[in-house]
Every structure is written in structure tokens, then in C-alpha cells.
User: Fold this.
Amino acid sequence: MKTVSDYFGCLVFDDRVMKGCLSADVYASLRKTIDEGAKLDASVANAVAGAMKDWAVANGATHYTHWFQPLTGITAEKHDSFISPAPDGGVIMDFSGKELIKGEPDASSFPSGGLRATFEARGYTAWDPTSYAFIKGKTLCIPTAFCSYGGEALDKKTPLLRSMEALNRQAMRILKLFGNTDVKCVKTSVGPEQEYFLVPKELYEQRKDLIYTGRTLFGAKPPKGQEMDDHYFGVIKPRVAAYMEDLNQELWKLGILAKTEHNEVAPAQHELAPIYSTTNIATDHNQLTMEIMQKVAAKHGLVCLLHEKPFAGVNGSGKHNNWSIATDTGVNLLSPGETPYQNAQFLLFLCAVIKAVDDYQDLLRLSVATAGNDHRLGANEAPPAVVSIFLGDELTAILDAIENDKPYEGTKKTTMKLGVDVLPRFARDTTDRNRTSPFAFTGNKFEFRMLGSSNSIACANIMLNAAVAESLKIYADRLEGAEDFETALHAMIQKTIKDHKRILFNGNGYDGAWLEEAAKRGLCNYRTTPDCMPHLLDQKNVDMLTAHKVFTVPELHSRCEIMLENYCKTVVIEANTMVDMARKQILPAVAGFTADLAEDVAAKKAAVPGASCGYETGLIGKLSVLTDQIADKTDELERAVLELKNTCTVEEESYAIRDTVLPKMAALRAVADEAETLTAEEVWPFPTYGELLFGVR
Ligand code: ADP
Ligand code: MG
Assistant:
């Protein structure tokens, strides 16, 4: 039997393959491009393309595609076969350097938020050599960025790469100040923990809401939910275990470091975490992981739900973005060091993150905003919509001591002078099973926990990298001009703590009192997508993101528009699905059941003259009232959707959806769910929550 190490990465054109099939010169040039971003010349590109094609064909591929991440949030591909006609009537398999480096998909149906109208009609894809090509099915997939001919980004990868570059530029300035001359570059790494649900395919197929929207729009609470806490880390059912095993194998073949798997809090909910990798690779891998999760599920007669809130009443799914910054020499800059200088450097990077998160709370919040995630954030199961940082008691006490020039009461009483004194050793905070913090320091990395399960991690990391680059820039500007480095450093760290400590919160984020306290501290609390998204265009945010060349002004306008449009379309589809299900499935079922009851009453009275029929008539009464209510609320919802036509801008439409459509959806659901609890199981027109949540055995 083949072992994992035999087949790990067998579908990836990785360094091992490159070394084996490229000449030493070509390999060296390509490596320089991958590591340092050097431009690849045409002859090298041709050699790489030829080798890549030979390898892909030998591994069963017939096609290639430029694989990219448009703003729809999923990945896109257009397949071209390698075949090229030969004079003798046959074909040869052909792939040139030009085809590797640049592609021109017909991009007109991808959302551009007006960008292509303003600039150039066509878009092109450009190879990202830092992310290895791989084979999916019979296709060689080449990870690419997607831009308009005007150079405007039409995807998520381009700004992500720019944000990594921005952070690299500023971090290098800081490292130089600390005398690190051997470092060539700094990169951020991410390990995204991915949550998901598995439901039986045959039940999924009977629910239009799951099919059209990815979440249930109706469904009464089952007798059992997650209250027993018996699912989290519980024994994995054989059918799920078989799925996970198959999934791991597929991911490993693609070189994805799937590492941890376990059950999550809600019934039918599970989690998968890979070992962390460089951010743009982690992003590509997470997109692939989500795709493979769904594919493998189908093979097992299951459907993998990646929606943030597939079921009301039980936890939704998120994604934890574990993030750190490291040098090419292998130093994690968020790891406390051994010497006074290393400690000072650690504290500087820590403070840069604290300042970034406080200054750009709004950007972090909106980077995870979608119609789906609005159901989670602040719903007492996920972090609140307020961004705050958890540092743990010990690190908080250290910062407190630095801020106030007072002795740190930890292991040894010392007043610390940065760059001179050794930072006291502190343990990784054991209270960090506090899962309520949106942004937690976990010893040598930060865990950003607000991401929704279906979000691309690109968006959150773009904002995080850019905001931290800005803090580092401000620090570098100050320190490079300082007369005395240590004094300036000490003063700067102290000032950061003083100015930004409002963002630090170690308590329970689910507590209502925290929201009051957060408001007093002046922290943002944007509960929904329409509340936060327009802040993308706030002057301070535009200034920062354009200064670091992460986005251009037109790109920001287009993104804001696309995200709001996406929110509106998502909810409108949900509303239309509800109207459809209510009219064509729920009302006929409830009305039919009520009519049957009435017939039963008549039959019973005929058989037993004077029979009371109290149960039946009571139920008929209740169901008749509910039937009318369902019908009325369906009409109201339909009208609310029609009235959206009267809005002039997408922003206005998003407010109307937030304020009228969503509340009307909730109202319709409430009466329909009540009717479900009173209607015979065998006439209910689609599978219930109980069947969906406990159906995988
Ligand atoms: P948990 O959050 O469940 O305690 P871990 O903290 O061990 O689990 O890891 C969660 C994720 O964080 C994994 O994907 C892991 O690879 C990733 N991770 C660990 N160290 C780092 C790091 N230095 N930078 C980024 N991600 C990391
Ligand atoms: Mg974690």
C-alpha cells in the first residue's frame, strides 16, 4: 500500500518536480522569480511551460487553465486543451511560455463594479509563480492573478500579493533598524481552520432553500440541538470518518497540508485545519480545500455545507485565520525572543498589530462582511461584530507595566527599559480557551476569528497586512529619524499602548456588558454588511490603502459596489425562495392537512353522533389562523422585494433589505415554523431539521 509520503503532492508541479525536470539554469532563474519576484525571460518561460506540460500530460492531463479568484468569491477556470494540429493530420501536445504567463479569459461576466467599463473591456490573467501549478481532474491549473488591461485588479489575489509586498517593505525597514542584515524578505503566514456541515444528499435535494441559497430558510427547532455539548470533539461517525479519510487523501495529493480534523459544536458540524503556509498559498489552498470538500462529499452521498449559517438555532460555521509574520531566515516576528533586543523587536511588532487593529477596526470588520456572516457575528456563538484584541493576562500586565513605567509583577520585579532589559518569560496564556475574542494573541500568532466559513481568506488578510504595514511605516519613519534609537523606541511603544489600549479586551465577548463598554470606548459596532461596507471609502481608509499601493481609488469603489451588490442579490434570492416554498409547498401542505382534519371531524361525527372532536377542531382553528398568516406574510415579503426597484443606489437597496426584507423573512419564517410543529410529519413537504442534523449515521 502506498504511504502518505509516497503520494503527498503527486498532483503538484512543486520544487521536487521542477528540480527533476528543469535544467540547472532554468531552475535557478525560476527559483529567483519565485523567491525574489525577479522577471522571467521568454526562453526560461518556454522551458518551464514545456516541462510543466510534459509532466501534466504524463500525469493524465489533457487541458490547462489559468485558475483565478474573481470577486465572486469562488475560483474560476476556463479550460484549453494542449492539442495543436500536426501536419500529418495528428496532434501534438503544445504549451508555450506565453500561454503560461498570460491568459485572456472572456471576462465580461465577472463582476467588475464598473471597472471594465471605465477602463478596458477585456481582462487578463497573469501567472503567480509563487503558488505551484497543480492537476485537478484532467486539467493543469495554473494559479493566476486577474486584472483589467488598465492594470486594475479584478480579483482577490492581486491585492493580496500587493498587501504582502507592502508589509514586506515596511517590515524590512524595521528589521534593518534592529540590525538584521541577513534577512532578504518578510512574509506573512496563515493557517485557516475551516468549519463545515455534512448532510445526507438525498435530504438536501428535497430542500429548495439549501439548493438555491446554501442555508435553510424554514425549519422548526428539533427536540435536540447542541445543548448536550456531546458533539464537540466527540467520536466521529464511521460515515464521516470515511469522508474525512478520502478528503485528506485528495488534499494531500494536491500538496495541501491537511492536519487536524474533529467534530464541532453543532450536530453534523466538523472542522479541518491545515498546517500554516505563506498567505497567498494558504489562500489558494483554502479555496481548493472548499472545492474538494464539496466534491468528495458527493462521492459519499453527502453534501458539504459551507454557508455561515445553514441552520437557525445551532452554531454557524466560521473560519479562524491564524496569522503571523516571519523572515525568510525563519524568525517568527510575533514570537517573544531571548535577548533584550529580540524582545524589543517582538514588542514593536506586537504594538504594530495592536495599533493596526485599532486604527482599522472598520476595515477588518468589513473584510469579513457578507449576508451569510451577518447571521453569525454578534449572535452569541461567534465573536461579536465589535473588533477587539485578546492578549491574555500576563502580556496585558507587561504592557501595563511598560505604559506606566512601573515594575512588572510577574516572575521578577523589574521596571523594563526596552532594548535594555530582558522581557520576563511569560507563559502562553492558558485562559485562551476563551473563544469569544475576535482577534486573539495565541503565543506566537494572532487568530482572527470573525471570518465566515465560505469567505475567501484573501479579503481579511489584505486588510490585516495593509493595516500592519501602515503601523510599521509610521514606526520606521519615526525611528529612522531618531537621535537615540532606544529612547525613541521606548517612547513609541509606550505611546502606542496609551493610545490604543481601548482595543484590548480579555473578557467574554459574548457578554452584553462588553458591547456597552465597547461603545463607551468608542469602538465600532457595525452589525450588518450595509452598516460597515460603505466605510471602505472613508478617507482614512482610502488614503492608507492607496498609499501602500494595495488598491487604487477606482478599485475601492468597485469593490464596495460589488460587495453590496452581492449582499443584495443573496438576500433577494433567499426572499424569492421563501415565497416560492411558502406558496408551492408549505401552504398547500398545511391547508391540505387542515382539510383532512375537517373531513375526519365530519366522518367521526357521522360515526359517533355527538362526538366532541375537541382536539381536531382546536387544531383546525390554530392551523387556519396560521395558514392565513403565512399567506399574508408571503405577500408582504413579495411586496418588499418588489419595492426594492424604487431604490436608486445599491447602498440604498442594501438598507432597504436590512430594514424591511430581512425582518419580513423572519416574520414569515416564524409562522411557518409554528405551523410545522402542528402539522403531521408525513405531510410536511421537505425534510425537517431533525432529519438533516441527525441524518448522517
Ligand atoms: P488551536 O487554535 O485549535 O489551538 P493551533 O493553535 O495549534 O490550534 O493551530 C491552529 C492553526 O494555526 C493551524 O492551522 C496551525 O498550522 C496554525 N499555526 C500554528 N502556528 C502558526 C504560525 N506561526 N503562523 C500562522 N499559523 C500558525
Ligand atoms: Mg485556533
About this structure: Residues 193, 320, 447 surround magnesium ion (ligand 2) (CB under 6 Å). The first strand starts at residue 63 and ends at 67.
